[in-house]
Amino acid sequence: MAIAKNASRLALESQPSAETKPRGRQRSHACEAAILAATTELLKKKCLRDVTADAIAQRAGVSKATLYKWWPNKNLVALDAFLSSMRLSVDIPNTGSALEDFTLELESVIRFYTSPQGSMFRQFVAEGQSDPEFLTLFRDRFLRSRLDEVRTIWERGVKRGEIRADLDPEIGMDLIFGPMIFRLLVGHAELDDAHAEALVAAAFRGVQKTPSSA
Amino acid sequence: MAIAKNASRLALESQPSAETKPRGRQRSHACEAAILAATTELLKKKCLRDVTADAIAQRAGVSKATLYKWWPNKNLVALDAFLSSMRLSVDIPNTGSALEDFTLELESVIRFYTSPQGSMFRQFVAEGQSDPEFLTLFRDRFLRSRLDEVRTIWERGVKRGEIRADLDPEIGMDLIFGPMIFRLLVGHAELDDAHAEALVAAAFRGVQKTPSSA
Amino acid sequence: MAIAKNASRLALESQPSAETKPRGRQRSHACEAAILAATTELLKKKCLRDVTADAIAQRAGVSKATLYKWWPNKNLVALDAFLSSMRLSVDIPNTGSALEDFTLELESVIRFYTSPQGSMFRQFVAEGQSDPEFLTLFRDRFLRSRLDEVRTIWERGVKRGEIRADLDPEIGMDLIFGPMIFRLLVGHAELDDAHAEALVAAAFRGVQKTPSSA
Amino acid sequence: MAIAKNASRLALESQPSAETKPRGRQRSHACEAAILAATTELLKKKCLRDVTADAIAQRAGVSKATLYKWWPNKNLVALDAFLSSMRLSVDIPNTGSALEDFTLELESVIRFYTSPQGSMFRQFVAEGQSDPEFLTLFRDRFLRSRLDEVRTIWERGVKRGEIRADLDPEIGMDLIFGPMIFRLLVGHAELDDAHAEALVAAAFRGVQKTPSSA
DNA sequence: AGCTAATCGAGACGGTACGTCACGTCTTAAT
DNA sequence: ATTAAGACGTGACGTACCGTCTCGATTAGCT
Questions:
Q1: Which is nearest to D56 in space by CA: D29, D23, D32, D86?
Q2: Cα–Cα distance between B134 and B125 in angstroms, integer?
Q3: Is the CB of D65 under 7 A from strand F?
Q4: Mean pLDDT score of chain C, rounded to an integer?
Q5: What gap in Å lies between CA C137 and CA B29, rounded to an integer?
Q6: D106 Cα to chain C: minimum distance (Å)
Q7: Averaged over C127-141, what is the pLDDT?
Q8: Considering only residues 102-141 of protein chain D, which place a Cβ less than 7 A from any atom of strand F?
C-alpha cells in the first residue's frame, strides 16, 4: 500500500531512539532538508512539470541517486516539500460565528492557494489526474487533515444551532470549498476576499428564494 | 490570441461558399478526421499524458509532420477531438422547476465526466495547470459555452421567482457545479445521482438554519 | 541506362521540328531555365547537401512537382545546372609545348574548381560516393568529355616527340590531374598556379634521379 | 579547435596513472567499444550516409543519448571506428629500393581502400566536402600520420640517391598517391596491382621523353 | 470556338532521420 | 551503509527534408 519507499519526512521525526542503528553511515538530515528546500525554492519559479529531478538534485547539492533513494519520484518529493513548509499548524478561526469562521478560513485558504507557495496545490491535483496513487497520497497526507480541521467549524456551527443538523457535513463543506477549487483550477472567475465572502454567504443562505422573504 | 496554428476543426466546417479556395491541394478532411478519431480512441484507454503524438499519428495512419502542421501540440489535438465528439448540442432540461433542472443537468454532467469519454475533462484541467494558454483555450472553446447554456436554467428560475434575483449568477452556478468539479478532480467523495441531488438541494436551501424552521 | 527521366536540358535543344508535338500545354523553357539558374545561384552560397529541393523550387518560382517531373532528384538538377553553365566549350591551350599546355590547362582547371562555380565538382564527387549511378552519370556527362579534350594535348605531345609514346595516356593524364584532385578534395596542401607548374614539371621529369644528371 | 566533445577513443587509452579518477561512475569501455564495433559492422554493409545514428545505437545495444553524449554526430563516430580498427601500425615496406617500396605501399593502400573496411576512406572524403571541420579532423587524425609514415620511403630514397633531392616531397608524394585517390573517388579507371606498378613507374621515370632515350 | 491534354503553381501528405530532453537506474570512489 | 558525481537505457519530443500526391488554373493543339 505504501507508495513512498519510506515514511519520508516523517521517518526522521519518529523513532527517537530505541531500535539498533544500522551499520554504516547514517542517513543525512541535512541532505534531506536541502532537497526539500531546493524543491520548494524551484517550485516558486516554475511549475511542477517544469522542475526536473536533476535541477532539484543539483540545487540541493545532492546526487540524484540520493533523491531517488528516499523518494520514488519527483512528485512525492514535491509533496513532502509542500508538507514540510506548512508545519506550523494553521489555526482555525473561532469567532463564535460559523459564517464568519468559514469566511475567514476561505479567505485564508484562497490567499494561500494563490500564493507562489500554495500554487503547488493546483500542481498536485493536476499530477493526480494521471497518477491515481499520487492523488490518493495527496488526499491522505494533506487534504484529509485539512478538511478535518475545518470540519470543527462546521461542528461548532451545528452545536450552536447556526447550521442545519440534518445536512451531511461532507456536502456542506464541498459547498463552501468546491466553488473556490473550481475557480482556482479553471480560472474562469476572480478569486479574492470579496468573492470568498459572497460564496460563503450564498452557501449559507442558499440559492432559493425563501417563502418568507418573498 | 490564437494558439492553434489555424482554426483547425472549425475551419473545415465554416464558409461553405464565399471566399475563393486557395490554389493548391486542399487540406484533407479524411486526414483530420482520422487524427481526431484516433485521438479519441486512444484517450479511452490511456490518459492524455500517456498518449503520444507518435501513437496518434500512427493509429490515424498519418505522418507526425502532418499532425504538427495543424496543431502545435497533442493537447490541442485532444481538445479538438473532445470538442468534435460533442457536436450534437446537449439540450438543457426544462421541467418547469429550476431545482429539478439543475439536478437533472448535474446528474447528466456527472455521468458524462465520469465516463471514459468525459474523463478528458479532468485531463484538460490538469494540463492547464502547467500550460496557462491551454487552460484559457479550453475555457474559451468549451467551458464558456457550456456554462452559458446552463445559465438559462438559472435565468428561467429567476424569472419564475424560484431563484433569488439578488444573487450573482456566477456565484450561484459555481455553488452548484463547483462541488462536483472538486470531487471529480480530487476524488475525496462519491459522485453519483444521489449526490447530485443532495448537492443541488443543499445549494438551493443553503447551509444556514433558517430562523423560521428553528 | 538513362537515369534522368528525360534527356533534360538537351531535350529542349534537339528536335527542332520533325516529330508531331504532343497535344496540350508545352513544356516551358522559362521554367527549366529558372530552375537551373536558381540552382546555380543557391550553390554559390551553400553546398549541395544544404540546398534543398524546396529552396530551389521557391527561388525559381516553380512548384516542386515541376522540378521532380523533369529530374529524378536534386543532384541531377545540380548536375544539369552545372553543365548548362559551362556550355561555351573551353578551349584547350596549344602553345606548341605539351609541358606548357598542360601547365596552362592545369592552372585553368584549378582556378575553375576552386571558384564558387567550380566547387560543385567536389560536391558531385562527394555525392557520387553514396550514389554510384550518379557518379557514373557525372563521369559520362562531364568528366569523360573533359578528359577527352585534354587528351589532345597529350597526343600532340606524343606526335611532337615530347612525350613518351610507350606510356599509357590514361596513366599519364592521371599523373597530371590526379594530384590536383587529391589536393582539391582533401585539402592537405595549397592549390595555385605555382603548384600547378611544379606538379606538371614533376610529372614530366619524373621523380627518379636520372643517371645522366647524377 | 576540438570538434569532438572529448578526446573520445584516445581518452580511454591515455594516462594510465597520473591524474585522480573523477568521482562518479566511469565511462564504460564496453559501451564505447560496442558503438565502434557496431559502426564498423554496419559500414561494411551500407555507406556512411545510409547508416543512421539509431541503427548504430540499436546494434550496439546502447542508447542514442549515450552516443550523442560522446560524439557530436555519426561521422565522428565512424571516424573513431575507422581509426580504432587500424591500430596495428601498418609497417612501411623497406626493400632497399624506393621504387619497389612505393609500389608495394601503393598496392597495399589500394587493396585496403578498395576493401569494405577501407572504403570508409571515400565516405570520409565525401562527407568532408560538406563539412569542412570534419575534413580537417579526418586529415589531422588519419591522413597526416599516414603520409608521414610513407614519407620515410621518400627520405630513404633521397638518401640513397634514388630520388631527386631538389623535388618537394609533398609534390612527389601527391604524384604517387594522387592518381590513385583520383581513380578511387571518380572510378574512371581500374585500380589494381598492375596499375599501382604502372603509376609508380610513370611517376618515377616521368612523362617526358628524355633526350638520352630519344 | 470549344474540346482535350498536358503543364504549371501551390502546398498537403507519408516517411524517415535527426538531435534533444527528462526520467529513473546503476556504477564508482569517497566518506 | 550512504553519499556525490555522473554515465546509462528508455522513450517521447518537435523539426527538417525527401519525393509523391492532389488541386485548380493555364495553355496549347485538335476537332
A1: D32
A2: 9
A3: yes
A4: 88
A5: 43
A6: 14
A7: 96
A8: none
